[in-house]
Amino acid sequence: MDTEALLAEIRAAVLDGEPSLVKSLTEKALEAGLPALTIVSEGLTEGIRSVGVEFQKGSYFLPDLVRGAQSMEIGLEVLQPLLTGAGEEMPTHARVVLGTVHGDLHSIGKNIVAAMLKASGFAVDDLGVNVPVEVFVEKVRETEAGFLGLSALLTTTVHQQEAVIKALEAAGLRSKVKVLLGGAPIDQDWADRVGADGFAPDAARAVEVARELAGIR
Amino acid sequence: MKFLEVLSPEDLDAIHAATLEVLGRTGMLIQDAGARERLEAAGCGVRGERVTFPADLVARAVESSPAEFSLCGRIPEHDCPLVPGRFYTLSTTGSPFVIDHETGERRHALVKDVADFTRLVDALPNTHMASPATPKDVEPEIVTPVRVATMLRNTTKPLRVAVESGDEVRYSLKIAAAVHGGMEALVARPQLQISVSPLSPLTLSGDSTRALMVAAAAGVPLGVIPAPIVGATGPMSLAGSLVQQNAEILAGLVLAQVVNPGAPILYEPRPTVMDMRTGQSIWGNPEVALLSVATAQMARYYKIPGSVTAFGSSARAMDDQNGFERALTLLPAVQSGANVLAALGGGDNVIHTSAELIVLDDEIMAWVTRFMRGITMDEDALGVSAIHEAVMGEGGFLALDHTRKFMRAGEVWTPRLSDRRNYSDWDRDGRPTIQQHARARVTEILATHVVEPLSDDIEREIDEVIAEARADLNVA
């Protein structure tokens, strides 16, 4: 199979949200001698971009987005050793660390935001739920992420968002990272009060806010 | 009137059988060691934090859960006996926002709103139980004790509060006990119902588990309220989400019965549906209406009182969408035979509560209550003599004793808010909307309605418990 047809198949498999197919096609592309970076930029990234376009048009829904992101990620996993080994950088808009704050086990809103960000070309480190303040701070320090997303659903845990922001200040990291807040009890007023950089009422808006803050049109 | 049903007896058996399979195979994640020990001693399987439930234990626990109990008022006139065929409305729980009555703008809920909303519930004839918004102007550690105290001060009707920790339950019960002259008196006439939410799918957090055990041990009415979001935290198939929420409720019910056999349990799930474009969890849609009816059927299947979402809407404004969504969710919910009809006064998928919605829902409930009374059938109602008299005599039906008799008995419902005037009167009055009528009613109630006050001694005792909670929970 010629390489262009192979890349087209990878794009289609990401668009269809078929992780195992993407994995085997990615391996096949490597065997065919395609450079890892080409597979990422012309296969996986193009595929997930199409997923984003379909979602914007309204023909795709959240489960399509989640499966598209999963499919892209499994391809990236195959390529990751080759990319870092070759000293090549993953082509992403920016790195995002996100998680649900300590004391809160709600994951679904955060997961949707993660999928949407991935579909929009961000690299995402998802720390999961019930994440202690120090773990957020450490991960921001380690990854030098441009964004930190803090999710809280319980009215009893929203104050943890403030605690993380204070800890970032104490660690001298606050100016290096944009902090975005989400969760049903959160609004712009709260984000302003605790000194966050942005707030989003839903996942689509989260991506818009991140793009605006990252200076991406 | 016959209950509305969307599941056949075979369907109910199938959901029950599937639930036992889930409980026996996947089990629940229960993040409290003490609870796991007690469940293991009762016959559950425990691997790490995961607990599986044998069918015979589930059957015994269902058996020992009372089929009927009452949520009581401070005064007996407000008692709500949860018995087959009786239904009561419950105001919205936990909204972080309110629509400000003065400005019409959305803002964070405050303790004052909890007081005002509760006072509206106290005044309104078709609103039977109060549940609070979540105010922002009080420390989160003591928000629940403060809400319970605020509600007790502003109504003599039953209260219900959803809790997130054992400490919240302890102090909330202590405050309610102060009003009733001790724990024993409170349990005998429980004015406070506690609700604990398993986290879908199939998880009871440590805090929630402890809250459930404290409430069960006390013996006050306990609601188990999983809130699976269909497609996100529960299966996309409605039947699958019914199975999962049933497993979550039965797991909580088993734990409660192990702690205190005979503890009164309410079957109280709040399933919603994820909007697959926005990720919002949606409360006013045909699936939620179906799930409410199915939930009432499952509660009846286990012979325990049921509580369902009844006033659902995604609308932000008091517009047509708000009207049709809440009416179309409410009517099947009432017909389902559920004892408690929840989310009165909530809008925007219960992200906000508003005073106007509370009085509007009370009005819709009056409409529905009349509908549920059905058509009186007796000789007098069949009207053979009335027809003869009206046709053969002078003055027609308007002049008959029969007419005044049935009018006074409430044969035809008279609305409080709906505008039935003729066009020119309505036009001359500036074409008021239902929202303006609702608003006027809110203003009137808040200006005039007086709640039977608590004694000075009780007031002092409540303040002391809150001070104690503050100190114990390290709130500045």
What would you note in describing this structure?
The complex is a heterodimer of chains A (217) and B (476). Chain A has 217 residues and is α/β, with parallel strands linked by helices. Chain A folds into 2 domains: 3-85, Methyltransferase, Methionine Synthase (B12-binding Domains), Chain A, domain 1 (Orthogonal Bundle); 95-214, Cobalamin-binding domain (Rossmann fold, 3-Layer(aba) Sandwich). Helix content of chain A is 58%, strand content 10%. Chain A contains 9 helices and 5 strands; from the N terminus they run ααααβαβαβαβαβα. Chain A has helices at residues 3-16, 19-31, 36-57, 62-85, 108-119, 133-143, 159-170, 188-193, 203-214, and strands at residues 95-100, 123-126, 147-151, 178-182, 198-199. In chain A, strands 2-1-3-4-5 form a 5-stranded parallel β-sheet, with helices on both faces. In chain A, helix 5 links the parallel strand 1 and strand 2. In chain A, helix 1 (3-16) runs antiparallel to helix 2, helix 2 packs parallel to helix 4 (62-85) and helix 5 crosses helix 9. The relative contact order of chain A is 0.11. The model of chain A has no long low-confidence stretch (mean pLDDT 89). With 476 residues, chain B is of the alpha/beta class. Chain B has 2 domains: 62-373, Trimethylamine methyltransferase-like (TIM Barrel, Alpha-Beta Barrel); 379-408, no CATH class. Helices cover 48% and strands 13% of the residues of chain B. A 4-stranded mixed β-sheet of chain B has the order 2-3-1-11. Chain B has a 4-stranded mixed β-sheet with strand order 8-7-20-19. A 4-stranded parallel β-sheet of chain B has the order 9-10-12-14. In chain B, strand 19 (346-347) and strand 20 (352-354) form a beta hairpin. The model of chain B has no long low-confidence stretch (mean pLDDT 96). The chains are: A alpha/beta (217), B alpha/beta (476). The A-B interface holds A 58, 61-63, 105-106, 108-109, 112, 154-159, 184-185, 187, 189-190, 202-204 and B 94, 96-97, 108, 134, 136, 140-141, 143, 164-165, 199, 203, 205, 229, 231-233, 236, 274, 276-280, 351.
